[in-house]
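Researcher: Re-running this chain for the archive, since the previous output was lost when a drive failed. Same request as before.
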Amino acid sequence: MRKTRLLWLMTLAALILSAAARPLRAQTPVQFKTSDGVTIYADYYPAKDSSQPMILLFHQAHSNRYEYSTIAPRLESLGFSCLATDQRFGGTMFGEDNETDAHMSKSAAQSHNVAGFEADLEAALAWAHAKDPRRKVILWGSSYSASLVFVIAARHPAEVAGVLAFSPGEYFPAQPTLVEDAAKKVRVPVFITSENSADAVANATKIFDAVASGNKVHYSAKYAVHGSSTLIADRNPKGAAVTWQVVMKFLTQFEK
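Model: Regenerated structure tokens:
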């Protein structure tokens, strides 16, 4: 009898923990076109009010918007509406398909198509501006998109309130100083972090040093992994919680 009761309690506890661990799924699927005709598939996570900037969440190479399936709900709970996109440089990371990649021509998906990559981010910014022209955005990038958010921020200073870059670098051989040159024009608050390999830290440091803003943070984590995955406990079990604390502290300046 006692063993049966104990087994029942353990099963109940497991069910409760499993439910709590599952991310909220309150997002709304949206679609919009890029300047070169690619359809972008995305999820919009609306916060309760629109007093704070909207955060545009861009994934790393060969990934998809599900990179943010646990991150976006947490940001939403802090009052930030979020748009998580499937960019054309996509794949099946996190066990999900990238719908944008699945529906477009192979020529548009080429890995050297930097203009196309920028078009994806530009289209997300245009969508956010159309949804609420008075509302600024925060650009959040992962790996290659962590580099391109500086390019977009430099190009749209009146629309961008801040930048978060997870593992940025000069990833585009045809334009070896693209990111550094853009960072020199970015004057909004900037947060940069990366995994702690020598190359990754050097890449992040070079871009950080170039940023024109006087309000910038370069966080060197003891435990970290590449890109925004550093905030996912399953990917970075020793460091995700601490990194979240630093990110949330940075975001408090945008809270109203």
